[in-house]
Automatic annotation (TrEMBL):
<keyword id="KW-0858">Xylan degradation</keyword>
<keyword id="KW-0119">Carbohydrate metabolism</keyword>
<dbReference type="InterPro" id="IPR043595">
    <property type="entry name" value="FaeB/C/D"/>
</dbReference>
<feature type="signal peptide">
    <location>
        <begin position="1"/>
        <end position="22"/>
    </location>
</feature>
<keyword id="KW-0732">Signal</keyword>
<protein>
    <submittedName>
        <fullName>Polyhydroxybutyrate depolymerase</fullName>
    </submittedName>
</protein>
<dbReference type="InterPro" id="IPR029058">
    <property type="entry name" value="AB_hydrolase_fold"/>
</dbReference>
<keyword id="KW-0964">Secreted</keyword>
<dbReference type="GO" id="GO:0030600">
    <property type="term" value="F:feruloyl esterase activity"/>
</dbReference>
<dbReference type="GO" id="GO:0045493">
    <property type="term" value="P:xylan catabolic process"/>
</dbReference>
<keyword id="KW-0624">Polysaccharide degradation</keyword>
<dbReference type="GO" id="GO:0005576">
    <property type="term" value="C:extracellular region"/>
</dbReference>
<keyword id="KW-0378">Hydrolase</keyword>
Amino acid sequence: MKIVKTLAGGLAALLLAGSAVAPVQADAQDLSSQINNQVNSAVNEANRAVADAANQANAEWNKFVQMANESLPNGSSLPRNPFPAPQVAPVPAPAPGPAAVGPWSPQAPAPVANGTNGEIHAAGRSYLIWVPRNYNPSKPTPVMVGYSAYQDSTENFRNYSRLRESSVGRDAIIVYPRAIGASWEGSPTAATRPGQDIAYVRAMINDVQRYYNIDRRRIFATGMSTGGGMAAVSACHMADLFAGVAGVSGAYYAPVNQGCQNIPIAFMALHGTNDTLTPYHGTIRRGQRVLPVPELFGSYAARNGCGPGLDRAPLPNATRVSARGCRKGVEVIQVHGSNHFWWYSPSAADEMWAFLMRNPK
């Protein structure tokens, strides 16, 4: 009888120890990572208690077995150690959270020095780049993307646009992606598939950030003619990336303003009122509709939540027309009596830069 009581006491100790561990496991799953070490310690102590209880129960049982086996017939016996210590898994450490966002650091040495031009190959294509003289890697720097015109070279656009020589080149890193087939998507002359140029521009910006500390709130785009159309494509489909765009004598074929993201973005058009290639009031060209500049202006005014009314201000040989009450600016500079050009008076580069820098993300 004493042996049975002792055995029962050992079994009770084992069951109580086992039941004490379960809440610890359940509670540990709900605890935050900040107290995970304390929980693990508690669980380990409980595990040791369970093992001790099992060992105690086994010891009591084995005493009973030794006495009982002496009275059993030959060939018969009771088993030893019937209560293996329960295996309780330790509480796993919580999955690490997202890494803290720290200051920018380069992933590779800068390939182009301050105040110089260069060319960088990335994602199967290449882009020209200008780094401003006062670039400081400790400070985020704006970026301007420049798209060349149809059948024009990237180098020629870089030279005649004079972006480098203007306030743009003083303040910003300028990148000029090379076009495939000397054209851009959105135009009937495009050699690329829909989305192909967009994907490259995104990859290009990420590549620039590998070398230079860029200001993600101030990424802008401009372009001449079909390049102006690509600037509109950037505003339409990459408003999550770009803060604003400015097209010069833009070839705004209808596809450049279709299926746009519903994100406000600053938009400027500089256009000659006597443009015979992409007329100010629109046309049909290459079998595609070229949007009238006022229509494009109106679509961005609606997208940017502008109010009623327009403001007009005189410029040399031109008039600035601005929408009112917009979440992001919408402007047109009408160059009086002018054709399909990139202008120096008024300075297309300086005018667009003043407008764009007032409209960060």
